[in-house]
Every structure is written in structure tokens, then in C-alpha cells.
Amino acid sequence: MKHYLGASNPMRAQFKPLQAYQAQHFSWAFEAGVATLTLNRPERKNPLTFESYAELRDLFNALRYATDVKAVVITGAGGNFCSGGDVHDIIGPLTRMSMPELIEFTRMTGDLVKTMRQCPQPLIGAIDGICAGAGAMMALACDLRLGSPRAKTAFLFTRVGLAGADMGACSLLPRLIGQGRASELLFTGRAMVADEGMAWGFFNSLHPAEALLAQAQQLARSLADGPTFAHGMTKTMLHQEWAMTLEQAIEAEAQAQAICMQTQDFRRAYEAFAAKQQPQFQGD
After folding, report:
1. What is the pLDDT of residue 74?
2. Which of 9, 25, 27, 32 minimizes the C-alpha distance to 17?
3. pLDDT score for 266
């Protein structure tokens, strides 16, 4: 993303490629600007552990400084997305922790959502089968979500005696599907089936399970081939404008668009249009 910093720029050393990233608690693949992150514990429907939470948080933070990753697909192995926090590896130990220890854990899980929202790359969730708890929050934190007809999404925190207010759910979910629908899902913990998710705007599209990942990667490829600096600006503004008045938002967008007009991609788009060609964006 930051390859517009020239090799001689003194800040360039802060920005590093991630294509060769060696994941410890999930799978990571990279091809031509598109990374595919696969939650990979299929025998237990891909639950999260203390270690995978932390690694995911750190990876999404590192993506802010990646020079090569332009879009990310997030999926799960074995026909499921993610069953949430591992019952045995996480929930059991939590019942024995002190309050200061618990707040460190809940802040860590929230930091995962923060870093997902703060990284400039578009995040595309490819959601098949079970998508529950923290897994549902990871899906919600994506910029776009593609689902399969068998996807079942549940914010089931109340099922384990907790509030529906977890990892930003009470902020993000109403904005996506509306206050009333979000309230129902967060109070009851019931599963939202794929057709509901599509009708309510949670999913951008539904695809057969066997074609889901390919469709998500195709979408990611189209975004990676686009003006990635401008995509990062779009993501930033979508996030920041939640807390703005309309007047503030319009002024912020005026400044953001003026910045984008200074990019070489803007010039490339004009020159390609004049030549009746497709622009070849480079993200600078």
C-alpha cells in the first residue's frame, strides 16, 4: 500500500512487505496483491484462542505498513467460518481470572476489530457455515461480506451469560442492519440465516459454497487492481464520518477528494479515458 514512498524516502524502512508472512495460528496465502487469511482449525469449526486473537490483532496492525498487500480475503476452513472463542481454551480460563485480567482480555479482542477497521486495505469476508460470537464480529468488521446459502451468523454472547455489547457489536451491527434487527440478534443470540443476512444488508451477495472463496478472491482482485490509495481513503472516511455532522462530513470529503486529486492514479485515469483505454492504477 505504501509503495508510493520512494526507495530513497527516509520513512520507507518503516514499511515492509507481508507476502512472505509466516502465520502461526491460521493460514496465510498471497498472490499478486491479494492475501487470503484462512482460520484453520476445521475439526472445531475454526475457534479463536488467546494466541490467535493476539496474532490476528498484530497482523492487521502490520497491514497498515504493508507495501504489497492491497486487499485481504478472510475465510475459514472445512465449511465453516469461525465458531468464536474456543470454549475450552478461552471461556474456561476466563471464569478463573481477576477483573484486571479480564479487562486485558476484552480489550485485546476489541483491539482486533479496531485494527481491522484501521488497516487501509479492503477486507472481504467469505463466510460459509457457522459464523458465531467473535467470528461474527470478525465478519462484521470486514468491509464486504460474501456468504453461502448455508451461512449462519450468530452474535451469541447472551447464550453464555454475557451482554450483546462485545467487540463493538452495539456500534457496528445497528449501522449495518438497523437498530431493531440488531437489537433482536444481540438480545436473543439467535442465528441469522443467509437469506435474512442478504435481505438485511449483512451480506453483499450469496454464492454456492464451492464457489464462495473464488468469488471473494475475484472481488479482492478487482479492488487490488483499482486505485488503492483512494480505496484506503474511502475506508477511512466511511469509518470517521460516523462521528461527524453532515457539514463536517462534506468538508472532510472535500479535503479527502482534493488529496486524491493529487495522486498519479487520478492523472492516469484521465489520460486513459482520453486515450479510450483502461487505466493501469499503481496506488500512488
Report:
1. 98
2. 32
3. 93
Below-70 pLDDT ranges, the chain = 1-4
8 Å CB contact between 35 and 29: yes
* Predicted local distance difference test score (pLDDT) of residue 2: 60
Regarding pTM above 0.85, the answer is yes
Amino acid 8: pLDDT: 83
The pair phi, psi for residue 203, each rounded to 5°, is: -95, 140
Helix (H) or strand (E) holding 72: strand 71-76
Contact 5, 12 (CB under 8 A): yes
β partners of residue 76? 39
Q: Residue 40's pLDDT is what?
A: 97
Cα 80 to chain centroid, rounded: 17
- Residue count of the chain, please give it: 284
Q: Which amino acid is at 258?
A: A
In terms of DSSP H, where are the helices of the chain?
A: 50-62, 92-94, 99-118, 134-141, 169-177, 179-188, 194-200, 209-224, 228-240, 246-260, 264-274
Parallel, antiparallel, or unpaired: how do β-strands 144-147 and 205-206 relate?
parallel
Instruction: Quote the cell numbers at residue 241.
Output: 464520518
Between CA 45 and CA 83 the distance in angstroms is 6
